[in-house]
User: What shape does this take?
Amino acid sequence: MSVDELVATSNPEKRELLVAGVQRLLTSGRCVWPPHEVTKLLVSAHRRNPQGFDWRQVDIQTALYERAIIRRDFTEELCLAESVDSLGGVQP
Assistant: This one.
């Protein structure tokens, strides 16, 4: 669930080991949005239909992250930006 944290790993070799581990987990699971995004999805679904709202019916899976993990679709620039963001704007 913490793909952003994996991407923020500044050491490319360590990052690859972590991402490879998550990719193995995808064979028997799924990748979901980070908690703040899940909350947004739930609130939006409730706002659209308060009487018919069922949290179990809200799709929280993120194929976008799953594809990025499989394809290793993150540039060094993105990883550096995530690393800086995770440190509150401080360069590692």
Remarks:
- Residues 3-86 form one domain.
